[in-house]
Amino acid sequence: MTDLRGYALVTGANGFIGSQVLRRLLDDPPSKPWSEVRALVRTDAAADQVRALGARPVRGDLLDPGPEVRDVVAGARYVAHCAHPTRHGQHADRPRMDRRLLESIDPARLARLVYVCGSSYLGASEGGELVDEATPPRPFGVGVQFEEGLRALREAPGLDYAAALVAGVYGRGSWFLELCARALERGDPVPVRDPAPVWPYLHVEDCARAIELLLAVSPARLDEVGREIILADEEPAPMDAFIAEIARALGRPLRLARLDEAALRALLPPAAFVYWTTDMRHSSARLRRLGFACRYPTFREGIPALGLAAGPATEIDS
């Protein structure tokens, strides 16, 4: 008998988040609403990797999609759009990627599009407020690049979508965690604003689980709760506490250079400075209303599960 469930497509399938989403969608196939998973990748090596996992690779690039890519997008029942420009300085290409994807989607065929973006679209929290999806957005950093795509989703007639506004996702290979871990292993101080900014965090495994939920949850539930959902764990937390947990897991002394914004501006590239100094107290209440529960409710459970090392961390002033 022909399986009528159709296939799921993951864009950016060899990226940090996309690769985890791909593994999640391939897990326990009989329980999924899709019969097959296809993966959009840019290189032969990435194609080999996703094929080994059990997905069907599609070579191409949303910045310049050929007929095969457009046909695969048009035929998909479920799309997890995790693709993002890979090279430094190309973040402004994300709106063009989004346009090419939306031009190729067939709303009559599509069951659900999950548009994966950053919660930096919602921006900074001011005065200790908790930002949620109803807060007027104040995009900063890469978050500015998602405005056009989110507007297009809201205005697209008949498009069944959910927007996943992803918080500070961490795991092995995530840029901030790896940067801090390398500095701690060398014994170098990690620069932190004084006072430390508060970020929303999310273990990458929970991120992939939440994106899978958004692909499969009923349209009625999304209409009830809202189609733009912050993906974060249960507790926004100060950056210095997050770094301290990395040091504890590594068994390394915690060395922090507590600096004011002027000193950080002189030390960091502009793209990093804005994230190092912005408070983002983002609420995951809407995600929890959809019935989602984190396996790692905070970074205090999540970082030890990464398998770094064990040992105490004590701060050394720098």
Give a nutshell description of this structure:
This protein has 13 helices and 14 strands.
Distance between the termini: 67 Å
Quaternary class: single chain
Main sheet: which strands, in order across? 3-2-1-4-5-6-11
CATH superfamily of the largest domain: NAD(P)-binding Rossmann-like Domain
Instruction: Give the H and E element order.
Output: EHEHEHEHEHEEHEEEHHEEHEHHHHE
Main β-sheet description:
7 strands, parallel
As a whole number of angstroms, the C-alpha radius of gyration is 20 Å
Q: Helix segment count?
A: 13
State the helicity in percent bands: 25-40%
Average pLDDT for all residues? 93
When the domains are counted, the total is 2
What would CATH call the class of the largest domain?
Alpha Beta
Instruction: Assign the CATH architecture of the largest domain.
Output: 3-Layer(aba) Sandwich
Low-confidence runs of at least 5 consecutive residues: 310-318
SSE-based structural type: alpha/beta
Secondary-structure map with pairings?
Layout: E1 7-11, H1 16-26, E2 36-41, H2 44-53, E3 56-59, H3 67-75, E4 78-81, H4 94-104, E5 112-118, H5 147-155, E6 161-166, E7 168-170, H6 175-186, E8 190-193, E9 198-199, E10 201-203, H7 204-216, H8 219-225, E11 228-231, E12 237-238, H9 239-250, E13 254-259, H10 261-267, H11 270-276, H12 285-289, H13 299-302, E14 315-317
Parallel strand pairs: 1-2, 1-4, 2-3, 4-5, 5-6, 6-11, 7-10, 8-13, 13-14
Antiparallel strand pairs: 9-12
Helix pairs in contact: 1-7, 4-5, 6-9
